[in-house]
């Protein structure tokens, strides 16, 4: 049977028609507790009244002009991003992969503009995920995502996650930048220890390389700080790619940079038809205001501590099947023991009306809306308990 869609996904049978807060609903009315939120996207939950109102109001005024004309919402949102971060300049995109592309171009262009055009190599770590464009799959280095798409792009070096010696050897006078996720999402919900981020910052400074963070998944309040690297104190990047959570469900991403890097991205160096479009800006501003509202991130820290502790108990109770609890804030994973399969656990959970995801390294991934309450965490953990109980080796 010919199908109209490219079969790049394998979705389950559920079809969701409506969302509200932390729940999704099928047409039949069946309710599901959403502990994956479109993979760390719907941080404010579904149909957040302020986001809905902002989108509706903008939809009635103006949808699109392209970047031929100024979009006032861009300046407003960029000022907010810069106010609360290392950044001085922002480029808006529609997705994470585009934010990564802009970050890579910005890094290379910095060295080019400073008379070092041969300094173009990008160092990444195993388990990385940076998106599905050509640049992003070559940066990510996952052989599964590269296979069948022609020769590897020149200029990317990958070292083993956590191998400090290899890192020191890989960052040379040809290295434009080191690109890492402070907390790996797709690769198995793996955190880079804060002390290592600080060490990485020092190494980059020592060698004259730039530091790029991919906070597409771990940013936007997900770990309990606005940006995940804020936990590490003095480890600010030169460039940062964000997306997913910053749009709360509306396609939005951004590349943030210091003045030193961003100033070279002048007319003709980069562009996007849709990036920073008025609809995205209307929603992005509301999402940002909510994330930075007094007490919002405190709630994320509190509820994530609670959830993690509860998950710890469930992991202990099923220690024959669960190796460990991983992650940071509300980006959490259960690493399953060999013989047990994360996707099967996600299916069992779904059968019990709990939605979770699967990540690399046989990890069941959770990234609930940041607005969950204790009752939701309890319900999720009870369901996981049952799902783990039903999980058979395969
Ligand atoms: C999802 C993701 C991307 C890619 O984002 P898209 O919006 O799917 O292009 C890049 N980096 C990380 C860390 C991600 O989790």
Automatic annotation (TrEMBL):
Similarity field: Belongs to the class-III pyridoxal-phosphate-dependent aminotransferase family. ArgD subfamily.
Entry-annotated residues carrying N6-(pyridoxal phosphate)lysine: 244
Lineage of origin: Bacteria, Pseudomonadati, Pseudomonadota, Alphaproteobacteria, Maricaulales
Catalysis performed (reactions): N(2)-acetyl-L-ornithine + 2-oxoglutarate = N-acetyl-L-glutamate 5-semialdehyde + L-glutamate
GO MF assignments: identical protein binding; N2-acetyl-L-ornithine:2-oxoglutarate 5-aminotransferase activity; pyridoxal phosphate binding
Pathway listed: Amino-acid biosynthesis; L-arginine biosynthesis; N(2)-acetyl-L-ornithine from L-glutamate: step 4/4
Main location: cytoplasm
Gene Ontology cellular component annotations, sorted alphabetically: cytoplasm
Record field: transmembrane: none
Listed InterPro entries: AcOrn/SuccOrn_fam (IPR004636), Aminotrans_3 (IPR005814), Aminotrans_3_PPA_site (IPR049704), Class-III_PLP-dep_AT (IPR050103), PyrdxlP-dep_Trfase (IPR015424), PyrdxlP-dep_Trfase_major (IPR015421), PyrdxlP-dep_Trfase_small (IPR015422)
Keywords: Amino-acid biosynthesis, Aminotransferase, Arginine biosynthesis, Cytoplasm, Pyridoxal phosphate, Transferase
One Pfam entry name: Aminotran_3
Cofactor: how bound: Binds 1 pyridoxal phosphate per subunit.
Superkingdom of the organism of origin: Bacteria
Binding site for pyridoxal 5'-phosphate: 96-97, 129, 214-217, 273
Record note on quaternary structure: Homodimer.
Anything else known: May also have succinyldiaminopimelate aminotransferase activity, thus carrying out the corresponding step in lysine biosynthesis.
Localization per Swiss-Prot or TrEMBL: Cytoplasm
Name assigned to this protein: Acetylornithine aminotransferase
Its EC number(s): 2.6.1.11
Annotated residues for binding of N(2)-acetyl-L-ornithine: 132, 272
